[in-house]
TrEMBL record:
Quaternary organization: Part of the 50S ribosomal subunit. Binds 23S rRNA.
Entry similarity comment: Belongs to the eukaryotic ribosomal protein eL20 family.
SUPFAM superfamilies, per the entry: RplX-like
Protein name: Large ribosomal subunit protein eL20
Amino acid sequence: MSQFTVTGQFKSRDGYSPFETTIDAENENVAREHVYSQLGSQHGLKRSEIELDEVSA
């Protein structure tokens, strides 16, 4: 497994909030899915409310 750093922003009460998180995943697509799942669960967001800017190894 590799570590991926995912950056982007998500919709919040005050507009958009930036985020950066590090995920252990097999590839970039799995890392993206994990971030969508994690942020959606923690903040009650839909995928359309999360914008991923960059996924880097």
